[in-house]
Write a structure and sequence with these properties.
Radius of gyration: 19 Å
Order of helices and strands: EHEEHEHEEHEEHEEHEEHHHEHH
Distance between the termini: 31 Å
Number of helices: 11
CATH superfamily of one domain: NAD(P)-binding Rossmann-like Domain
Helix content: 25-40%
Mean pLDDT: 96
Low-confidence stretches: none
């Protein structure tokens, strides 16, 4: 049995990973601001995501730490939200790194979450792990997030940074609101529809994390996206096909900019995109279960329909 620490592990991704670790027979501890008693075998431990405390005793002797902590970006990027998005990620990462430094028996591996927003709004340009950081707020946030981790300061712990794309799953993430709109026959393209969506099925993401924990050769950044990014227009067309809905008119960019704040999200999340390839995953021989969008959406829709 391995002890896996999930920091910020009470959300969509954290819950999915926790269940995967439990099924493998691992001991799973979730660091969260609001711990509760769970019946699934996961132990929740209180932390404030910025400073050391009683939680660090569990890091000492753990096999691995997976850090997913950070304020959700599904909000309007006001100055206050920008500050919270960056600080929540930087402070948590620094606290975890300090706990690992103080551990008598440091974890063998630290999986640090990041996102493909690192590359900025890339248009048609293809990005891989060798591409530089882009411009814009999300790129700034991801740069700060990754810079908060200094692998050289953790010589006994292998550090892997996973830059997640849009995660497609049944129980949360960005797909749910898009699926609801599509079912209401409002599944048209956003703006001109040419912005790219680099996506990954949740099952493939879980497999990437499992491999990153096990493979001693994995270090540094990996793009966690399927090898076939699509434009927004293509993505919405496939959603309409899966849910058997007719063509829908696009949502003009000006309307998105006006309405998005009223819905509590930033328009840039819908109007900007990245065309990202998982070069390092493919070079390492990782095989995607869902490399094509249609099959990924069909699998999720099937489970939605019969669950």
């Amino acid at each position: 049995m391995k002890r896996i620490i999930l920091a910020g592990g009470s959300g969509f991704l954290g819950n999915a990973l926790a269940q995967q670790f439990l099924q493998r027979g691992d001991e799973v501890l979730v660091l969260t601001r609001r711990p509760s008693v769970r019946r699934d075998g996961v132990k929740e431990v209180a932390w404030d995501a910025r400073s050391l405390g009683n939680w660090e005793q569990f890091v000492d002797g753990a096999d691995a730490v997976v850090n997913l902590t950070g304020k959700n970006i599904n909000c309007v990027f006001t100055p206050e939200n920008r500050r919270l998005i960056i600080e929540s990620r930087v402070n948590a990462t620094r606290a975890i790194a300090e706990a690992i430094q103080r551990a008598a028996t440091p974890p063998r591996v630290l999986i640090q979450a990041s996102a493909i927003g690192f590359y900025g709004d890339t248009g048609d340009a293809v990005c891989d792990e060798t591409s530089p950081a882009g411009s814009g707020f999300l790129a700034e946030a991801c740069r700060a997030w990754e810079a908060a981790l200094d692998p050289a300061a953790l010589p006994a712990t292998r550090c892997v940074v996973l830059r997640f794309g849009m995660v497609l799953g049944r129980d949360g993430g960005a797909l749910q609101p898009l699926a609801r709109l599509t079912k209401l026959c409002l599944g048209g393209a956003t703006g001109d529809g040419r912005q790219f969506i680099s996506w990954v099925h949740l099952e493939d993401l879980k497999a990437v994390v499992a491999t990153a924990l096990a493979n001693e050769n994995w270090r540094g950044p990996f793009n966690v996206t399927a090898p076939n990014p699509v434009t927004n227009a293509e993505f919405m067309r496939e959603l309409r096909r899966v849910f058997d809905r007719p063509w829908s008119p696009p949502a003009p960019a000006f309307a998105v900019r006006l309405l998005a704040p009223l819905l509590g999200v930033d328009a840039s999340l819908a109007l900007e995109g990245q065309r990202v390839l998982p070069q390092r995953l493919q070079a390492a021989g990782f095989e995607f279960q869902f490399p094509e969008l249609r099959k990924a959406l069909q699998e999720i829709a099937r489970r939605l329909k019969y669950s």
